[in-house]
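fold-stage: in
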Amino acid sequence: MDELLKVLKHLEQMAEQAGKPKEKRSSLPNIKLPRLHLPHLDGPTWIVLLMALAALFLLWWAWAGDWNNLSLLSL
């Protein structure tokens, strides 16, 4: 009989908890990242950047051509 009362009491506690909202969850505080301010690029800077990108592209293109020629020689 005692066990039956324990089970009944446990079921009542579960029924009471079922109607209540869940416990509050802890969360990290909101962290705001610093804003990134990019500098304004003037005309000559853009020209230098475009020339550097063009040089890198030409190096890549020439290297790919040389690689194709080397792979043909190994056949």
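fold-stage: in (second)
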Amino acid sequence: MGKGQSFCRGQIALYGKKPVLILALDGALCIAAKLYLPRIARHRSDIDLSETPLLLRNSIVRAADLLRCRVTDLRPMADGLLCVGEGILQRVECAARREMECQASEQLPAGVVRSTWRAPRWGSCGRKIGGVPSE
């Protein structure tokens, strides 16, 4: 595997000095998600890679950090042998889609989306259902 490396979906590659997971390839461009070491502070879009090969066990994919890069900027990691399964790729894509929807709803101005949370009223035990109304 040399300079003319052909990458595929699900392969782990190096972008600069950072490992990335290739999600999609389109000619000379690709979409990749960054890999991180597990931390105490987790993000809602983190996917744990605990059921993958030994070298990737202690890493997470952050679906919020997607990058579009050229294939020529990528280098193979471990001679192109590190790959993840289709199930993990689908989980990462689902998390990325959900993250984009959450970010889009967070960008809306206040008051556009009605909240479902209602604060409790002081002195109220809730609405009485059934029975005599005078009780």
